[in-house]
Design brief:
single chain, about 110 residues, mainly alpha
Length: about 110
């Protein structure tokens, strides 16, 4: 099967998230950006990923952390861990659904 570059990136990110090789919130953000780029963000397979992205948009990731105080980072890192403890199973289920949708598709991500 042929995937578009963005489809392949979504699939790769979902695999990385399942194997905990990428920060789950960063992965959700990246998947949402890519799904939006290919006009598929409204697909139900992305519902939980979109919810996590929306719920966690205030958590600083990457270089954004450089602009935050140590106290703030300590607080939001604790909140992030608690959130992920509750949501990890939903995130992993969504990743599995994304992968399954790719695996069962006969053409581009549809």
């Amino acid at each position: 099967m042929e995937y578009s570059t963005d489809d392949k990136k979504i699939l790769d990110i979902a695999y990385e998230m399942l194997h905990q090789k990428i920060d789950l919130i960063l992965g959700c953000r990246q998947i949402c950006n890519l799904a939006s780029k290919i006009n598929k963000l409204d697909d139900e397979v992305f519902t939980d990923i979109r919810a996590v992205d929306s719920d966690t948009d205030y958590f600083p990731i990457g270089l954004a952390r450089n602009n935050c105080s140590v106290e703030y980072l300590t607080q939001v890192d604790q909140e992030k861990e608690e959130y992920l403890d509750d949501m990890k199973k939903y995130i992993f289920n969504a990743c599995n659904e994304i992968i399954e949708k790719f695996a069962n598709s006969t053409s581009e991500f549809s």
